[in-house]
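Researcher: Please generate the 3D structure of the following complex. Treat every line as part of one assembly.
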Amino acid sequence: MRLSQAWTIALHDLVLLRTRRSVYVGLVLFPIMVAVIFPLLTRYILETATHMYPSELTSLLDAFSFWFAVGGSVLPGSIASYSIAGEKIEKSLEPLLATPSTDSEILLGKVLSAFLPTLLAIWGGAGLYMVLMDRVTGGYLGYLYYPNWEMAILLLVLSPLICLVSIEISVIISSWVTDVRSAQQISSMTFLPFVLIYVMGEAGVIPLDNPHLLEISGILAVLSLLLFSVSRKTFHREEILTRWR
Amino acid sequence: MIDTDGLTRVFGEITAVDELTLHVKEGEVFGFLGPNGAGKTTTVRMLASLISKSSGSATVAGYEIGDSSAELKLRRQIGLLPENVGLYEGMSAYRNLEYYGRLNRLDSTTLRKNIERLLRMMDLWEKRDLPVGTFSKGMKQKVAIARALVHDPVLLFLDEPTANLDPEAAKMVRDFILELKRDQRTIFLNTHHLDEAERICDRVGILKTRLLTVGTLEELKAQLWGTRTVVRLEHASESIVTALRARLGARKIEVSGNRLLIEVADPERENPEIAEAVLASGGRLRELTQLSPSLEEVYLRLIREEGPAA
Ligand SMILES: Nc1ncnc2c1ncn2[C@@H]1O[C@H](COP(=O)(O)OP(=O)(O)OP(=O)(O)O)[C@@H](O)[C@H]1O
Ligand SMILES: [Mg+2]
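Model: Done. Output below.
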């Protein structure tokens, strides 16, 4: 496996991404919206609430932080769908497979082209969010809530893992379906389990504290390894040329 | 350049290619003919190490197919134009070629030089920065052929390069292939178009799951029909026909008006004898020509003899 070969493929797909407005608009819009709306909402709550304990505020902030992890499940699916189902439809996979590249290099290139922009978008959004939120809540709490360990785990461990799992699922789905739209629709469903985790966190079923976040990360790491071997089997040149329709 | 021995590919119940044994020489243009579903694409995909073989063996450009350690080196030596062009329509011709050059790990100087040479050769250099989506089908096909050539492979596989093109575009692509032929590159050409094979190829093979025949066009034609010589006389007479029979032995001679249709085995040797026999028996020769069947006749006869597709 030569990383440079995978990187050539990833770069090419990233350039193509620029021509897919719907994809990159989502990539920019989602993190910015989350980054701006939550601080505005918090400011409104602080201005109108008659009384609020600091602990109530911080658990609200933790819930908001979790959205940046969920982003990792919503965003990369549509990119991965384009870069695999899209090539399948344009029939450009066969010439690509005829170049001196291994299946793993091609697959890694495709994964990177979805993974990198998503992570950048999420990190950018999270940075903006932390700055804005600190401005809104700093005076009230008497200290700056962000950055903190929870956010670090979310951004550095959980959201990359969620992102990876979501991409792997898209790879597998892209081999089943025959158009980009259904690949996108099905793979966008991957955000549902994470929303479920979020809701359970809010309801107190699984407290979303750091030990639990790490536990979830561990499960996701195992899941992503499992899905990796499945997607590796799916993305096999013999399969692509003889079974993909 | 290509050597196969009993190469076979099975898809479930269907045998797509059965025991193919074939030899393609360096520098030749080899035409691979066969009806739909004959296994042409499957053969090319096996030879390009895109799909695996079921049994048999083959070496391509010096590498054994199916040997995973040689796969990348093998693909570095070959160029492939698949049935579907599969260009990135939103990208320019230049960028399309550049991507494949990078994937073949060309350094940027060589890459730039090769792209320019190919695009100029195809008269597309002026249009290099336009998105391929705006090109006509024939132009796209040429870009796709250029893509297969960008790394200067020793062996080029073209899978039906003129299918779905109008006659003018097909001619454009064909002329381009003829131009490629001049620089001594080995070309393996899948086609349905017999006239294309006749015009371009040094040798052809006819496939219908099994290889029915292979050889130069002359060999194929002679092998199947023998050849016939037409003699037009000022006045055909029984004595001339008798003299011919005496001279040539038991040959089939048809007489129609003043024309004689004579089956010959070796025209080079027999035609002068025919002329002599005619003159010696007092005939006056107006015209003596060689008739040979077209490739189309050869092809249709073989394919029909083989019966319906398996
Ligand atoms: N992936 C596959 N799965 C099952 N059968 C296949 C597959 N690919 C090809 N075949 C079968 O193998 C046979 C040969 O197909 P192939 O595409 O090689 O023919 P071809 O000569 O290229 O035909 P065409 O002129 O239509 O392109 C056909 O009967 C086809 O149905
Ligand atoms: Mg074919």
